[in-house]
């Protein structure tokens, strides 16, 4: 039976009135939305979702509004040996750019995709289309990324949406198998939370919401 993380109290718990679905117990949607926050990468430990659970998370990630049904995204899984090798190649790119890297910097680059047990690269394949504005496709990719994060949190995992230089570097993108006309929406670091993060101040609705016609 799976558990959910309660970020308000910091305890692993089973919901007193869980939403039962087949053999799973999942956090209720309102609690998920009101308590999710990014977990710093060093606090993301093994295990990460894998197998059927990861498949479910990816399917839920793609369950987003998508004008024209273009599915303008794809996912790259960085884990294990593949993630290690990718880090070494990216460190080489950084070294070609900047000259010999210091030990700490080299190690940072080499371990870029092994800092968490799973990193999901979300790639936008949005492009000009005769009917569907590219902007709307990009929004759908962002929605898929957020769904991915929520789907992970719903199962008790922590997640963090990161880009950093490798998302914007053409050579790094090529090494990761990302085409020149594709964009990185983000790298979502996922793992089991070892330390509960404190929250940050959240935007107030008074600063961001207006009533139409009230002015
Ligand atoms: C597209 C995108 C890219 C981001 N890239 C980074 C990044 O490279 N480094 C970073 O520290 N935070 C990055 N963030 C911010 C974190 O994902 C996160 O939102 C932030 O730490 C605040 O945490 P919260 O999710 O709890 O509000 C990015 C966010 C978005 C939406």
From TrEMBL:
The keyword NADP applies. SUPFAM superfamilies: FMN-dependent nitroreductase-like. Residues 36-191 form the Nitroreductase domain. Pfam families: Nitroreductase (PF00881). It is an enzyme of class 1 (oxidoreductase). FMN binds at residues 36-38, 63, 67, 161-163. Belongs to the nitroreductase family. This is Putative NAD(P)H nitroreductase. It comes from Aureimonas jatrophae.
